Amino acid sequence: MSASTPPPYDRVLDERGRRCPMPVIALARMTTALPAARLLLLSDDAAAETDVPAWCGLRGRTLAWVGDAPDGRGRAYLVVPLEQ
Amino acid sequence: MGHYGRVVAHGSDSPETAPDQVSGARAPAPGGYLDAASTAPLHPAAREALLAALDQGWADPARRYHQARRARQLLDAARESVAVILGARPDEVSFTTSGTQAVGLGLAGLVRGRERAGHRVVSSAVEHSSVLHAAQAAVGDGAETLPVDQVGRVDLDSLGAVLRTQGVALVALQSANHEVGTRQPVGAAAELCAEHGVPLLVDAAQSVGRDPLPDGWSVLAASGHKWGGPAGVGVLAVRTGVRWRSTSPEGALEHGRVPGYVDVPAVVAAAAALEAVERERVAESARLRALVDRLRAQVPALVPDAVVLGDPHDRLPHLVTFSFLYVDGEALLADLDRDGFAVSSGSSCVADSLQPSHVLAAMGALTHGNLRVSLPVGAAGADVDRFLEVLPGVVAGVRATLGTEGL
Lengths: 84, 407
Hints:
The complex is a heterodimer.
Chain A: E1 11-14, H1 22-33, E2 39-43, H2 48-59, E3 61-68, E4 75-81
Parallel strand pairs in A: 1-2
Antiparallel strand pairs in A: 2-4, 3-4
Chain B: H1 3-10, H2 19-24, H3 44-56, H4 66-86, E1 93-96, H5 99-113, E2 120-124, H6 129-139, E3 143-146, H7 156-163, E4 168-174, H8 186-195, E5 200-203, E6 219-223, E7 234-238, H9 264-279, H10 281-302, E8 306-309, E9 319-324, H11 329-338, H12 358-363, E10 370-374, H13 381-402
Parallel strand pairs in B: 2-3, 2-4, 4-5, 5-6
Antiparallel strand pairs in B: 1-7, 6-7, 8-9, 9-10
Helix pairs in contact in B: 1-4, 3-9, 4-9, 5-6, 7-8, 10-13, 11-13
């Protein structure tokens, strides 16, 4: 898996090594704490590929970008407030 | 009662196989068993028929003595009765050792019969894994999938587009989805396939005995244990005139389509179960549909952040699937089991592969906290009531453990 560079973000949430539903719960927690932040979730859980966009739909967030994690381990999901 | 049931029941000396008991039997629904889409409990009619056929149908039906003729008679009667229910001719119907084998032989035989047309096998992305694996085994990279919408229904425009390209050996489409219950547009797909002269394989495993069967198939596969027969019986039906060539070694039985000796008593039992469920199908499906309607309406009202999956109307009568946000599917199943409910889940934590269900992924549905409820024939309304009483507390308990309040 190759590394890639995500667009600008405010916080990183490294949930690698944790399985569903934990990465999505961690994403929800940080979104509640920092509603305006651009969050970069790192996850190597196969379910995140489907569950992060599904959660964004349920909670009114935008999945702005998906790619490989900056260091190449797992995937990165940039989740931002709806209006961005 | 069909002619097949009479053959077995009248031939038996055992009081347990009295005809009125067979015909009057209703499938038992063990309390709390809500996973009929995985397998159904053995139908009482199948149990009676199996016991009788073990005594009367044990001989090799290919031989020329009276025990063999008896076995042949039972096998022929079972075939005729299954054929009528599937809308097929008896010589189109072969019994296999499983639904998976029926899919595998059916698909490989079409690929072989269509060698000159091409090596691409096109299926919906939400087929049962047996279809996807059979396609992969038969043509490797030639296996292609079509997208589905949010309720899991295949995109017919994509099918039309792929059929206008070259090299499609066959299309495979399920009658209805095994995880979310959505019916597939088999009739429309069959018309498109027919326009292009491409055969259509239909996996009808979830519909037989439950829902009207689609027409227009070239090859149809089904599985006996899903409708209350014993495990180890599948059905492969090949329409007359379809270019299908056996991939089995010489000497295959069942009209040359299936390798190996036929388990006559099991086939007889599966046919008896199918006759029994088919007799009550219309009324029973209407009853179960109302129970599922209640689940579909009540669960989101009782449980916060519950997503109901699949088409609300154009669906199997007995099956519904939910995803609960911030819930661990494995914990959900364990807690429901503790409360006496057997259900299944497409969540990755429940799968041996640790991959989420390919069906849920193709639909873009939430895969965690996933729960499939599939009602067996004869399921009690009281079971559904109790499930609705228990479920909100179970989901809240799992969420409390994970500390997800207010998220």
